[in-house]
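Tutorial handout. Part one gives the primary structure; part two gives the three-dimensional structure as C-alpha coordinates.
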Amino acid sequence: MGKWSVVCTKCNGVFDDGPYVCPACGGQLDVKFDPDAVAQAIDGLACSGRRGMWRYDGFLPVQSPLSIVSLGEGDTPLIKSRLFKERYGMEHVYLKVECQSPTGSFKDRQASLGVSRLQSDSGSGCLTASCGNAGAAAAAYCARAGRRLFVLASDDISDAKLEQILFYGGHVIKVPTCSPGSDPMGLYRIVNEVCSVAGLAPLVTAHYSNPYLGEANKTIAYETCIQLGKCAPDHVFAPIGGGGLLAGMWKGFVEFRDNEVTAGSPRMVAVQPEGCPSLLNAWKLGLTHVPAVEVTTKISGVSLSWPLDGVAALRAVRESEGSVVTASDEEIIRAAALLGRFEGLFAEPAGAVSVAGLLRSLEAGEVSRSDRVVCLITGAGWKSPLSLRGADDGSRRRVSVVPAQASRDAHYVGDLLKNLIEQGGDGLGA
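Part two.
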Protein backbone atom coordinates (compact mmCIF):
# COMPACT_ATOMS: atom_id res chain seq x y z
CA MET A 1 0.00 0.00 0.00
CA GLY A 2 1.02 3.62 -0.53
CA LYS A 3 0.60 6.60 1.83
CA TRP A 4 -3.13 5.94 1.88
CA SER A 5 -5.62 3.23 1.04
CA VAL A 6 -9.40 2.91 1.03
CA VAL A 7 -11.19 0.68 3.52
CA CYS A 8 -14.72 -0.64 3.12
CA THR A 9 -16.99 0.28 6.03
CA LYS A 10 -19.09 -2.83 5.33
CA CYS A 11 -16.70 -5.74 4.69
CA ASN A 12 -13.44 -4.14 5.95
CA GLY A 13 -11.74 -4.81 2.62
CA VAL A 14 -8.60 -2.73 2.00
CA PHE A 15 -7.81 -1.43 -1.48
CA ASP A 16 -5.31 0.79 -3.24
CA ASP A 17 -6.31 4.31 -4.28
CA GLY A 18 -8.91 4.46 -7.05
CA PRO A 19 -12.33 2.88 -6.50
CA TYR A 20 -15.35 4.97 -5.46
CA VAL A 21 -17.22 2.04 -3.90
CA CYS A 22 -15.98 -1.28 -2.54
CA PRO A 23 -15.03 -3.57 -5.46
CA ALA A 24 -15.90 -6.60 -3.31
CA CYS A 25 -19.31 -5.79 -1.82
CA GLY A 26 -20.33 -2.35 -3.12
CA GLY A 27 -20.03 -0.81 0.34
CA GLN A 28 -18.92 2.72 1.18
CA LEU A 29 -15.19 3.40 1.36
CA ASP A 30 -13.13 5.49 3.80
CA VAL A 31 -9.69 6.93 3.08
CA LYS A 32 -7.11 5.78 5.62
CA PHE A 33 -3.65 7.38 5.74
CA ASP A 34 -0.65 5.47 6.97
CA PRO A 35 0.17 6.85 10.46
CA ASP A 36 3.82 7.29 9.49
CA ALA A 37 2.75 9.35 6.47
CA VAL A 38 0.63 11.62 8.67
CA ALA A 39 3.49 12.04 11.15
CA GLN A 40 5.85 12.87 8.29
CA ALA A 41 3.39 15.42 6.89
CA ILE A 42 3.14 17.10 10.30
CA ASP A 43 6.92 17.25 10.61
CA GLY A 44 7.05 18.93 7.21
CA LEU A 45 4.55 21.70 8.02
CA ALA A 46 7.15 24.02 9.55
CA CYS A 47 9.22 24.13 6.37
CA SER A 48 6.37 23.94 3.86
CA GLY A 49 6.63 26.67 1.26
CA ARG A 50 3.03 26.29 0.13
CA ARG A 51 0.15 28.52 1.08
CA GLY A 52 -3.57 27.87 1.41
CA MET A 53 -5.11 24.44 1.50
CA TRP A 54 -2.25 22.84 -0.39
CA ARG A 55 0.14 23.59 2.44
CA TYR A 56 -1.38 20.35 3.74
CA ASP A 57 -0.87 18.30 0.59
CA GLY A 58 0.77 15.53 2.64
CA PHE A 59 -2.58 14.92 4.34
CA LEU A 60 -4.55 14.74 1.09
CA PRO A 61 -5.03 11.86 -1.38
CA VAL A 62 -3.31 13.39 -4.40
CA GLN A 63 -0.46 11.56 -6.06
CA SER A 64 1.77 14.47 -7.05
CA PRO A 65 2.02 18.17 -6.12
CA LEU A 66 2.53 18.79 -9.83
CA SER A 67 -1.08 17.81 -10.49
CA ILE A 68 -2.59 20.42 -8.17
CA VAL A 69 -5.31 22.64 -9.67
CA SER A 70 -5.74 25.67 -7.45
CA LEU A 71 -7.50 29.03 -7.43
CA GLY A 72 -6.08 30.04 -4.04
CA GLU A 73 -8.50 28.13 -1.81
CA GLY A 74 -7.74 27.84 1.89
CA ASP A 75 -6.14 30.19 4.40
CA THR A 76 -9.58 31.69 4.96
CA PRO A 77 -9.77 34.22 7.80
CA LEU A 78 -10.52 33.27 11.40
CA ILE A 79 -11.85 36.45 12.95
CA LYS A 80 -12.98 37.29 16.48
CA SER A 81 -16.68 38.02 16.68
CA ARG A 82 -17.73 41.52 17.66
CA LEU A 83 -21.37 40.42 17.89
CA PHE A 84 -20.78 37.85 20.61
CA LYS A 85 -18.35 40.06 22.51
CA GLU A 86 -20.57 43.13 22.63
CA ARG A 87 -23.97 41.48 23.02
CA TYR A 88 -23.16 38.35 25.00
CA GLY A 89 -19.85 39.04 26.72
CA MET A 90 -18.07 36.18 24.92
CA GLU A 91 -14.43 37.07 24.30
CA HIS A 92 -13.48 33.92 22.41
CA VAL A 93 -16.00 33.36 19.61
CA TYR A 94 -14.34 33.08 16.21
CA LEU A 95 -15.79 32.99 12.71
CA LYS A 96 -14.08 30.82 10.09
CA VAL A 97 -14.92 32.77 6.95
CA GLU A 98 -15.21 30.14 4.22
CA CYS A 99 -17.49 32.44 2.22
CA GLN A 100 -14.32 34.27 1.12
CA SER A 101 -13.20 31.23 -0.90
CA PRO A 102 -12.70 31.73 -4.67
CA THR A 103 -16.27 30.83 -5.68
CA GLY A 104 -17.84 31.91 -2.39
CA SER A 105 -18.13 28.65 -0.45
CA PHE A 106 -16.20 25.96 1.41
CA LYS A 107 -16.89 23.58 -1.49
CA ASP A 108 -13.85 25.04 -3.30
CA ARG A 109 -11.54 22.90 -1.19
CA GLN A 110 -13.23 19.69 -2.30
CA ALA A 111 -13.45 20.79 -5.92
CA SER A 112 -9.76 21.62 -5.97
CA LEU A 113 -8.88 18.19 -4.57
CA GLY A 114 -11.29 16.38 -6.89
CA VAL A 115 -10.04 18.01 -10.09
CA SER A 116 -6.40 17.66 -8.97
CA ARG A 117 -6.91 13.92 -8.56
CA LEU A 118 -8.04 13.67 -12.18
CA GLN A 119 -5.01 15.36 -13.72
CA SER A 120 -3.35 12.03 -14.56
CA ASP A 121 -6.42 11.21 -16.67
CA SER A 122 -6.09 13.67 -19.51
CA GLY A 123 -9.25 15.01 -21.04
CA SER A 124 -12.06 13.20 -19.26
CA GLY A 125 -15.15 15.26 -18.52
CA CYS A 126 -16.79 15.37 -15.09
CA LEU A 127 -20.25 15.03 -13.60
CA THR A 128 -21.62 16.24 -10.29
CA ALA A 129 -24.99 16.57 -8.61
CA SER A 130 -25.58 19.76 -6.68
CA CYS A 131 -28.14 22.23 -5.38
CA GLY A 132 -25.67 25.01 -6.15
CA ASN A 133 -22.42 25.63 -4.28
CA ALA A 134 -20.73 22.33 -5.12
CA GLY A 135 -21.73 22.72 -8.76
CA ALA A 136 -20.31 26.23 -8.93
CA ALA A 137 -17.05 25.14 -7.32
CA ALA A 138 -16.70 22.13 -9.61
CA ALA A 139 -17.42 24.30 -12.66
CA ALA A 140 -14.73 26.82 -11.70
CA TYR A 141 -12.02 24.22 -11.12
CA CYS A 142 -12.95 22.25 -14.22
CA ALA A 143 -12.63 25.49 -16.18
CA ARG A 144 -9.22 26.07 -14.65
CA ALA A 145 -8.17 22.54 -15.66
CA GLY A 146 -9.72 22.72 -19.14
CA ARG A 147 -12.32 20.04 -18.48
CA ARG A 148 -16.00 19.88 -19.35
CA LEU A 149 -18.44 19.67 -16.45
CA PHE A 150 -22.04 18.53 -16.38
CA VAL A 151 -24.20 19.28 -13.34
CA LEU A 152 -27.33 17.38 -12.36
CA ALA A 153 -29.33 20.03 -10.51
CA SER A 154 -32.72 20.09 -8.85
CA ASP A 155 -35.21 22.33 -10.63
CA ASP A 156 -35.42 24.70 -7.64
CA ILE A 157 -31.75 25.76 -7.85
CA SER A 158 -31.40 29.50 -7.20
CA ASP A 159 -30.83 31.75 -10.20
CA ALA A 160 -27.62 33.13 -8.68
CA LYS A 161 -26.06 29.68 -8.31
CA LEU A 162 -27.29 28.56 -11.72
CA GLU A 163 -25.78 31.63 -13.38
CA GLN A 164 -22.47 31.05 -11.60
CA ILE A 165 -22.25 27.47 -12.88
CA LEU A 166 -23.07 28.59 -16.41
CA PHE A 167 -20.60 31.47 -16.26
CA TYR A 168 -17.77 29.01 -15.61
CA GLY A 169 -18.83 26.95 -18.61
CA GLY A 170 -20.72 24.17 -16.84
CA HIS A 171 -23.66 22.46 -18.53
CA VAL A 172 -26.68 22.13 -16.24
CA ILE A 173 -29.20 19.31 -16.49
CA LYS A 174 -32.26 20.16 -14.43
CA VAL A 175 -34.09 17.24 -12.85
CA PRO A 176 -37.57 17.65 -11.30
CA THR A 177 -37.44 16.85 -7.59
CA CYS A 178 -40.54 18.57 -6.27
CA SER A 179 -43.18 16.48 -7.99
CA PRO A 180 -45.20 13.94 -5.97
CA GLY A 181 -43.41 10.62 -5.65
CA SER A 182 -40.04 11.99 -6.76
CA ASP A 183 -36.90 10.93 -4.89
CA PRO A 184 -35.16 14.11 -3.65
CA MET A 185 -31.90 12.17 -3.29
CA GLY A 186 -32.19 10.51 -6.67
CA LEU A 187 -29.68 12.90 -8.26
CA TYR A 188 -26.92 11.74 -5.93
CA ARG A 189 -27.82 8.06 -6.05
CA ILE A 190 -27.33 7.78 -9.82
CA VAL A 191 -24.18 9.87 -10.38
CA ASN A 192 -21.64 7.05 -10.35
CA GLU A 193 -23.82 4.86 -12.57
CA VAL A 194 -24.34 7.71 -15.04
CA CYS A 195 -20.59 8.31 -15.10
CA SER A 196 -20.01 4.65 -16.03
CA VAL A 197 -22.48 4.93 -18.89
CA ALA A 198 -21.24 8.29 -20.20
CA GLY A 199 -17.51 7.87 -19.57
CA LEU A 200 -17.30 10.76 -17.09
CA ALA A 201 -15.51 11.17 -13.76
CA PRO A 202 -17.67 11.78 -10.65
CA LEU A 203 -17.12 15.04 -8.78
CA VAL A 204 -19.86 14.75 -6.17
CA THR A 205 -18.54 16.18 -2.91
CA ALA A 206 -20.49 13.71 -0.76
CA HIS A 207 -18.50 10.86 0.76
CA TYR A 208 -21.49 8.73 -0.21
CA SER A 209 -20.41 8.90 -3.87
CA ASN A 210 -16.74 9.88 -3.69
CA PRO A 211 -14.70 8.92 -0.59
CA TYR A 212 -11.73 11.13 -1.48
CA LEU A 213 -13.11 14.66 -1.70
CA GLY A 214 -14.23 14.91 1.93
CA GLU A 215 -10.56 14.73 2.96
CA ALA A 216 -10.26 18.37 1.88
CA ASN A 217 -12.53 19.40 4.76
CA LYS A 218 -9.81 18.27 7.18
CA THR A 219 -7.80 21.30 6.11
CA ILE A 220 -10.38 23.64 7.67
CA ALA A 221 -9.67 21.97 11.01
CA TYR A 222 -5.89 22.17 10.49
CA GLU A 223 -6.05 25.88 9.64
CA THR A 224 -8.30 26.62 12.61
CA CYS A 225 -5.87 24.99 15.05
CA ILE A 226 -2.86 26.76 13.54
CA GLN A 227 -4.68 30.12 13.56
CA LEU A 228 -5.51 29.59 17.25
CA GLY A 229 -1.83 29.04 18.05
CA LYS A 230 -1.85 25.24 17.75
CA CYS A 231 -4.87 25.01 20.03
CA ALA A 232 -8.16 23.28 19.40
CA PRO A 233 -11.35 25.21 20.18
CA ASP A 234 -13.79 23.98 22.82
CA HIS A 235 -16.74 23.85 20.40
CA VAL A 236 -17.12 23.95 16.64
CA PHE A 237 -20.54 24.82 15.21
CA ALA A 238 -21.08 23.62 11.63
CA PRO A 239 -24.17 23.56 9.41
CA ILE A 240 -25.47 20.21 8.22
CA GLY A 241 -26.41 19.84 4.58
CA GLY A 242 -24.99 16.49 3.57
CA GLY A 243 -22.93 16.20 6.78
CA GLY A 244 -19.53 15.82 5.15
CA LEU A 245 -18.20 19.17 6.34
CA LEU A 246 -18.57 18.34 10.02
CA ALA A 247 -17.35 14.75 9.56
CA GLY A 248 -14.27 15.84 7.60
CA MET A 249 -13.36 18.55 10.08
CA TRP A 250 -13.60 16.09 12.96
CA LYS A 251 -11.19 13.78 11.16
CA GLY A 252 -8.72 16.67 10.88
CA PHE A 253 -9.02 17.62 14.54
CA VAL A 254 -8.44 13.99 15.55
CA GLU A 255 -5.30 13.75 13.38
CA PHE A 256 -3.83 16.87 14.99
CA ARG A 257 -4.77 15.65 18.48
CA ASP A 258 -3.41 12.13 18.00
CA ASN A 259 -0.15 13.50 16.64
CA GLU A 260 0.15 15.99 19.53
CA VAL A 261 -0.09 19.12 17.41
CA THR A 262 -2.92 20.12 19.77
CA ALA A 263 -3.56 18.98 23.33
CA GLY A 264 -7.19 18.09 22.71
CA SER A 265 -10.09 18.26 20.27
CA PRO A 266 -13.38 20.18 20.19
CA ARG A 267 -16.96 19.14 20.74
CA MET A 268 -18.60 19.13 17.30
CA VAL A 269 -22.03 20.78 17.21
CA ALA A 270 -24.18 20.01 14.17
CA VAL A 271 -26.75 22.68 13.32
CA GLN A 272 -29.86 22.11 11.20
CA PRO A 273 -32.99 24.11 10.41
CA GLU A 274 -36.02 23.11 12.47
CA GLY A 275 -37.70 22.21 9.20
CA CYS A 276 -35.07 19.55 8.40
CA PRO A 277 -34.23 17.77 11.69
CA SER A 278 -32.92 14.46 10.32
CA LEU A 279 -29.68 14.37 12.31
CA LEU A 280 -31.36 15.75 15.43
CA ASN A 281 -33.94 12.94 15.38
CA ALA A 282 -31.28 10.24 14.99
CA TRP A 283 -29.12 11.76 17.74
CA LYS A 284 -31.99 12.03 20.23
CA LEU A 285 -33.21 8.49 19.52
CA GLY A 286 -29.72 6.98 19.78
CA LEU A 287 -29.84 5.63 16.22
CA THR A 288 -26.80 4.59 14.18
CA HIS A 289 -28.52 5.53 10.92
CA VAL A 290 -30.25 8.76 9.88
CA PRO A 291 -33.85 8.35 8.65
CA ALA A 292 -35.14 10.78 6.04
CA VAL A 293 -37.55 13.53 7.11
CA GLU A 294 -40.13 15.69 5.43
CA VAL A 295 -38.49 19.03 4.65
CA THR A 296 -40.30 22.28 5.39
CA THR A 297 -37.37 24.70 5.69
CA LYS A 298 -36.81 27.27 2.95
CA ILE A 299 -33.07 27.54 3.66
CA SER A 300 -31.41 26.22 0.51
CA GLY A 301 -28.23 24.19 0.92
CA VAL A 302 -29.19 22.66 4.28
CA SER A 303 -32.50 21.15 3.24
CA LEU A 304 -31.66 17.58 2.22
CA SER A 305 -34.32 15.19 3.50
CA TRP A 306 -31.59 12.62 4.07
CA PRO A 307 -28.01 13.84 4.65
CA LEU A 308 -25.78 11.69 2.45
CA ASP A 309 -22.95 11.72 4.98
CA GLY A 310 -25.27 11.86 7.96
CA VAL A 311 -23.96 8.63 9.53
CA ALA A 312 -20.39 10.00 9.50
CA ALA A 313 -21.57 13.32 10.93
CA LEU A 314 -23.57 11.55 13.64
CA ARG A 315 -20.52 9.46 14.54
CA ALA A 316 -18.38 12.60 14.76
CA VAL A 317 -20.90 14.29 17.08
CA ARG A 318 -20.91 11.29 19.40
CA GLU A 319 -17.15 10.66 19.35
CA SER A 320 -16.51 14.31 20.19
CA GLU A 321 -19.20 14.36 22.90
CA GLY A 322 -20.89 17.10 20.93
CA SER A 323 -24.54 17.77 20.18
CA VAL A 324 -27.12 18.56 17.51
CA VAL A 325 -29.18 21.75 17.64
CA THR A 326 -31.76 23.33 15.36
CA ALA A 327 -32.87 26.88 14.63
CA SER A 328 -35.92 28.28 12.90
CA ASP A 329 -35.73 29.79 9.41
CA GLU A 330 -36.40 33.19 10.97
CA GLU A 331 -33.50 32.78 13.41
CA ILE A 332 -31.17 31.71 10.60
CA ILE A 333 -32.09 34.66 8.39
CA ARG A 334 -31.66 37.00 11.34
CA ALA A 335 -28.24 35.48 12.06
CA ALA A 336 -27.20 36.31 8.50
CA ALA A 337 -28.36 39.90 9.02
CA LEU A 338 -26.40 40.11 12.29
CA LEU A 339 -23.25 38.92 10.52
CA GLY A 340 -23.62 41.77 8.07
CA ARG A 341 -24.35 44.45 10.64
CA PHE A 342 -21.80 43.44 13.29
CA GLU A 343 -19.09 41.54 11.44
CA GLY A 344 -19.08 43.00 7.94
CA LEU A 345 -19.75 39.57 6.46
CA PHE A 346 -22.21 38.93 3.62
CA ALA A 347 -23.35 35.35 4.19
CA GLU A 348 -26.17 33.42 2.61
CA PRO A 349 -28.66 32.03 5.17
CA ALA A 350 -27.16 28.53 4.90
CA GLY A 351 -23.79 30.11 5.66
CA ALA A 352 -25.13 31.63 8.88
CA VAL A 353 -26.76 28.48 10.28
CA SER A 354 -23.85 27.92 12.68
CA VAL A 355 -24.33 31.34 14.27
CA ALA A 356 -28.04 30.70 14.74
CA GLY A 357 -27.11 27.41 16.39
CA LEU A 358 -24.67 29.06 18.78
CA LEU A 359 -27.30 31.62 19.78
CA ARG A 360 -29.71 28.75 20.54
CA SER A 361 -27.07 26.84 22.54
CA LEU A 362 -26.12 29.95 24.47
CA GLU A 363 -29.75 30.59 25.36
CA ALA A 364 -30.10 26.98 26.54
CA GLY A 365 -26.97 27.23 28.69
CA GLU A 366 -25.14 24.55 26.69
CA VAL A 367 -22.13 26.80 26.03
CA SER A 368 -20.18 28.78 28.60
CA ARG A 369 -19.45 32.43 27.89
CA SER A 370 -15.77 31.72 28.56
CA ASP A 371 -15.54 28.89 26.02
CA ARG A 372 -13.48 29.14 22.85
CA VAL A 373 -16.00 28.65 20.03
CA VAL A 374 -15.63 28.53 16.25
CA CYS A 375 -18.56 28.99 13.86
CA LEU A 376 -18.25 28.05 10.19
CA ILE A 377 -19.51 30.72 7.78
CA THR A 378 -19.85 28.57 4.70
CA GLY A 379 -21.38 30.53 1.80
CA ALA A 380 -21.55 34.07 0.41
CA GLY A 381 -24.74 36.11 0.52
CA TRP A 382 -24.94 36.87 -3.18
CA LYS A 383 -25.64 33.18 -3.80
CA SER A 384 -29.12 33.29 -2.27
CA PRO A 385 -32.38 34.93 -3.44
CA LEU A 386 -33.10 38.43 -2.14
CA SER A 387 -36.16 37.08 -0.31
CA LEU A 388 -33.88 34.99 1.91
CA ARG A 389 -31.30 37.67 2.71
CA GLY A 390 -33.09 39.10 5.73
CA ALA A 391 -35.31 41.49 3.77
CA ASP A 392 -37.19 42.34 6.99
CA ASP A 393 -34.08 43.31 8.98
CA GLY A 394 -34.73 47.03 8.60
CA SER A 395 -32.17 47.54 5.83
CA ARG A 396 -34.77 48.94 3.43
CA ARG A 397 -35.44 51.72 5.94
CA ARG A 398 -31.81 52.76 5.61
CA VAL A 399 -32.40 54.19 2.14
CA SER A 400 -33.15 57.92 1.97
CA VAL A 401 -33.98 59.91 -1.17
CA VAL A 402 -32.96 63.50 -1.87
CA PRO A 403 -35.27 65.45 -4.23
CA ALA A 404 -33.63 66.40 -7.51
CA GLN A 405 -33.87 70.12 -6.75
CA ALA A 406 -31.93 69.62 -3.50
CA SER A 407 -29.23 67.33 -4.89
CA ARG A 408 -26.60 70.11 -4.65
CA ASP A 409 -27.94 71.77 -1.52
CA ALA A 410 -25.37 70.98 1.20
CA HIS A 411 -27.60 72.37 3.96
CA TYR A 412 -30.51 70.13 2.93
CA VAL A 413 -28.34 67.02 2.76
CA GLY A 414 -26.53 67.95 5.98
CA ASP A 415 -29.79 68.43 7.88
CA LEU A 416 -31.03 65.09 6.55
CA LEU A 417 -27.90 63.39 7.86
CA LYS A 418 -28.19 65.13 11.26
CA ASN A 419 -31.74 63.83 11.61
CA LEU A 420 -30.67 60.28 10.70
CA ILE A 421 -27.83 60.41 13.21
CA GLU A 422 -30.20 61.58 15.96
CA GLN A 423 -32.59 58.69 15.17
CA GLY A 424 -29.79 56.15 15.67
CA GLY A 425 -30.55 52.42 15.86
CA ASP A 426 -29.22 49.56 13.82
CA GLY A 427 -32.52 48.15 12.59
CA LEU A 428 -31.87 44.81 14.30
CA GLY A 429 -33.65 45.22 17.61
CA ALA A 430 -32.32 44.31 21.01
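Part three, for discussion. The CA atoms of residues 74 and 355 lie 21 Å apart. The longest helix spans residues 244-258.
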